[in-house]
């Protein structure tokens, strides 16, 4: 892809778990769900081994957080005319904030309260 990004667009460099990357141009109004659908519909040929069955399981991760489907690039305050890196993963469900740790503690009976030595 050319090094010049249109001033009103955001260039996303998406990285798969395998380390493969591809760049796509998006508008600030595009949502995480729009991007997942676009990537699914325009799946790069060199990502063939990672092809997924549905755009609904594609998730974007930005700065360590899963993006929910309705969040737009503009809402993330991504710089226009620049390249932003995100990870793209196949995952059925999104973790709820802090719920994973809570569920694990309930299963194991652990608590994060106190350690008495």
TrEMBL record:
Pfam family, one: Rad60-SLD_2
Subcellular location: Cell membrane
Keywords: Cell membrane, Lipoprotein, Membrane, Methylation, Palmitate, Prenylation
InterPro entries cross-referenced by the UniProt entry: MUB (IPR017000), Ubiquitin-like_dom (IPR000626), Ubiquitin-like_domsf (IPR029071), UBL3-like (IPR040015), UBL3-like_ubiquitin_dom (IPR039540), UBL3_Ubl_met (IPR047977)
Keyword set includes Ion transport: no
Protein name as catalogued: Ubiquitin-like protein
Membrane topology: Lipid-anchor
PANTHER family: UBIQUITIN-LIKE PROTEIN 3 (PTHR13169:SF0), UBIQUITIN-LIKE PROTEIN 3 HCG-1 PROTEIN (PTHR13169)
Any one GO cellular component localisation term in the record: plasma membrane
Domain Ubiquitin-like: start-end pairs: 10-88
The organism's place on the tree of life at top rank: Eukaryota
PROSITE patterns reported for this sequence: UBIQUITIN_2
């Amino acid at each position: 892809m050319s090094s010049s990004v249109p001033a009103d667009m955001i260039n996303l460099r998406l990285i798969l778990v395998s380390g493969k990357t591809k760049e796509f141009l998006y508008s600030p109004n595009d949502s995480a769900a729009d991007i997942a659908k676009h990537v699914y519909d325009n799946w790069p040929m060199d990502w063939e081994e990672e092809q997924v069955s549905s755009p609904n399981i594609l998730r974007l991760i930005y700065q360590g957080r899963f993006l929910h489907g309705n969040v737009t690039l503009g809402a993330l305050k991504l710089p226009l005319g620049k390249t932003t890196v995100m990870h793209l993963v196949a995952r059925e469900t999104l973790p709820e904030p802090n719920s994973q740790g809570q569920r694990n503690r309930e299963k194991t009976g652990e608590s994060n309260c106190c350690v008495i030595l």
